[in-house]
Amino acid sequence: MIITDHTLEKIADPFGILEGNRYEFHLFALVDEEDELFSPEGFYIRVLYAVTDTEQKIVGLFLHNRADDSVLDFELEEDELEQVRDYCAAHLNK
């Protein structure tokens, strides 16, 4: 999997319920044709990412079909999850 681009948005917490800050990433990725995630339309990964004074972590992750925005019923493998974690951490303040 190759992450080619992303969007990033800070999620508002008007009531101050959540500790730290929450962000929503949309990661656009490419996979080989042999990969079970492959589709001609492509997909993106919606990541809900939490940042506190002591940690940064993924709190939600969803795969979406780019053609119709439907949620795909797949899970990422551990190495792909690590790649997503690293990407989000590296691009949080850019």
Topology diagram in text:
Blueprint: E1 2-11, E2 21-30, E3 43-51, E4 56-65, E5 71-72, H1 78-91
Antiparallel strand pairs: 1-2, 2-3, 3-4, 4-5
Question: Please, could you describe this protein's structure?
Answer:
The protein is mainly β. It has one domain (2-91). The protein has one helix at residues 78-91; strands spanning 2-11, 21-30, 43-51, 56-65, 71-72. The chain has a five-stranded antiparallel β-sheet, with helices on one face. The protein is globular and about 45 Å long. The model has no long low-confidence stretch (mean pLDDT 90).
Mean pLDDT across all amino acids:
90
Tally of alpha and pi helices: 1
> Which structural category do the helix and sheet elements fall into?
mainly beta
The structural domain count equals 1
Helix percentage range: 10-25%
The first-to-last residue Cα distance is 22 Å
Any idea what the shape is?
A: globular
Task: Report the portion of residues in β strands.
Answer: 35-45%
Compute the number of strand runs: 5
